[in-house]
Amino acid sequence: ASSLAAGCGARVAAYVRLMPPKQLQVQQQQQNPQVLPAKEANLFKTALKFYNGKKYKKGLRSVDQILVKFPKHAETLGIKALVLNSLDRMEEAHVAAREGIKSDVRSFVCWHALGVLHRTEHNYPEASKCFRTALRFDERNDRILRDLNLLQVMMRDYTGYIDTRRKFLEQRPSLRANWIGLITAYHLAGNNQVALKTILTYEDSIQPVAEPEFEHGELLLYKNLIIEQMGDMSAAIEDLNKCERLVIDKTQHQEIMGRLTHQAGRFEYAEKIWRDLIFKNSEHYAYHQALILTRSRIPYGQGLPDLKLPATPYDRKASLPHLNDDQVATLESVYDDLAGAYPRSNLVKRVPLTFTKGESFKRRLLAYIVPYLRKGIPSLFGDLKALYTDKDKVAAIEEVALACETSLRANRSLPLKQDKEGEQESPSSMLWALFFLAQHYDRLEQHDKAFKYLEEALNHTPTVIELHMFKARIYKHTGNLALAAEAFDSARKMDFADRYLNTKTTLYLLRADKPTEADRMIGLFTKEGENPVIYLAEMQACRYELEKAESFYRTGQYGLALKMLKAIDKHFVDIRDDETDFHGYCLRRGALRAYYRMVEFEDNLFSQPYYVRMAKGFVRTYLALHTKPAAPKAAEIDEYAGMSEIERKKAISKKKREDARKLVPEPKAKGKGPKGKQVIEAKPDPDPFGEALATIPDTLKEASKYITTLKLSVPKDVEVHILACDLYARRQRYLLVLNSLQACLKSS
Amino acid sequence: RISTSMPHLPVEYGNVTPKNVGQVRVLNQHIFPIVYADKFYSDLLLPGKADLSRLAYYNDVLVGALCCRLENEKAEDIAVVDPSSKGVRMYIMTLGVLAPYRELGIGSQLLQHLLDLVAKKYPHLEDIYLHVQTSNKLALDFYAKFGFQNIATIPDYYKRIDPPDCYIVSKKVRPAIEK
After folding, report:
1. I need a surface site. Which of A24, A70, A217, A720 has the fewest CB within 10 A?
2. Does the interface predicted TM-score (ipTM) exceed 0.90?
3. How far is A427 from chain B (nearest CA, A)?
4. CA distance A427 to B101
């Protein structure tokens, strides 16, 4: 509000300077009720100072003092509305703003304030209208223009956004930020050609850059991204070559060059680049993936399943396209050379396991496994897990692992030819071989065999925490969730300082439908003095809230489930809101490509896995409520089952005390807030059991809102369409049911 | 990999902390036929008692542990039936190594460390002693190597295992006082 202050303050200051003698003053004041006499004018200045300094209560007091004598002073009313907005007193703020507009319909302060109010309430179209109106009365007001600008990009109103960005540029063409703003505006709107033209115009207007520096280098890479998106690979490559000297991030530059030349079909050139990058960093998987593709002369993007953004064919998750024997042979010799060149690289030994077959695969696998067993590296199975999609490889892995086991049992040696004679493996090699076999059979769903191996491993060395963790996991896989939670807890007790064990135990407890215990468990590691549930909500711990919601759903406590889901919904609203900070920040910092990716991310927010899971959860819960509407009282909780009468009474009264505490969550200690910041107290929870959410009149209508969002954001998800079928059938919209069934067939 | 001729395992040592005491419990429960109560483990964590226990790790896995306590520090502490003992004694509560890791020098290293500690920090002790089940020949030979001797026998010392009798195996620390 600094410009606003400047705007009003200047006017007030002007009035103050021309202070006429008292009689004239009174006369003037009677003629124009918008002019403030000296005392009130000072109060106004103070109020603005308080508002800018975030001392809202003091600002409110000053403003109210002015209004005592001048209740219809529009600008004061506007400031009052802004202050009340910051104090989260929205109804009063609206009243003040409207009063102000009524007294002076041309007051840009009041229109601006009203716009801010609408913005706080996420009513962006209304906010936009108000800002525009304010601008009509004060065209050059920088502050209002910026607010409008931000709003336009939040609403993705690119036409308006480009318009305001152009205005900024026209006002101050010497400011780099204004150029960047306009360029990104065109790019976001999809108008790459004009964006490119603007960059070139900007480059012509500035002094040629002598040394590589971050911001300009970023701009050049950004320009290259724009050219690449226009489709002309050779133009992009040429441009990339030209800007190499001035780009600071050489690795990035090289990676882009490797990718572009691969896309353009220049395999040999691309291969050389990727080899060079492997020289810089042999442990980056994407480089190896790219090397395999370019060496085998496979076009970029060939034979790829439909990938989600922003994956590329170089992604670890992108499976290799089919390679013929010649290609495999070539790659094997390439990697044998690389193994010689980078003897300490782990990835250089691991990557060949993805494309080799038969005896060669077995040989390499054994050589890979033996050091892991010797060193006792628990993550061996996790490392090889990705190979399990190939049946032949699974059989080979089993063969090799069993051979190791046999050999260790027979003479405590591994079946790999060694140089030194008269040496044995350490005792722990057996342990890790047994552990690996347990995990192997568990993956193949032979849980009994897995358990047998695990028991033997536990008998061998019971102090290995990973074994206890895995025991719980086997229980989970066999559906024994209560035992799984217990087993994981005993693993946790072996190391109380381990946060990972604590978190996993919490999640296992939630899966076993023990939410109260889970809260207590996670509370062992949350911030001291704060209610863990509230703390986790502040931290936007979606996974925890989702698991809890799903647990409540399973036990039929739909109100509580909906409450948790609503909390997650709010997180996503907050993520969308937080976007406002980044529009300014990224551009100020010059991180243009990251900014572009951020906007893409925000645009695709509703396809994020947590959001999809939450939305599906909403739909399922509402469908369940439709089948069996919620009773007015909170549902009986299963946790009291199996207790004696006395225990039950104790548990119920304890719960009542806890719920009473929940209603008034611990307020933040006022004295401890950062200096100058007024702490807003947490509101008491108006709906602790989610009853309000569970007893809405038309649950199906709510559900269809979420289905509509999901159909747009994840159209290929079969589950979404199945839920949609169910929903539409209940609403008797049979054409839509047919539609959804067709979509199911298409996606599967 | 370790040599078959002279087996020796590279081991790291550590102390009992509230963080890892759960692992020590798992270790002891696995090795010994006696289950020790919670007080046993909480006593290990008492201030000033850190050097009375020692943990042996191989590749960050706990494979062995030694747990001792001082006795007769105050006069009320009742030692076991041995009329000649009057002074402070070191009692070995548990000394054990997981089966696959035995005969590789770990137990010896733990015990030797204790002997060195006593020589350096507790030279005023009467002796170091412990109870060994009469049937446990391996343990008896092990302690004999370090100069421990059987000084008494207690019949029916153990409640739930067979044989229930035990030896008191002891090694004198301070030189005998001239009478």
Report:
1. A24
2. no
3. 6
4. 6
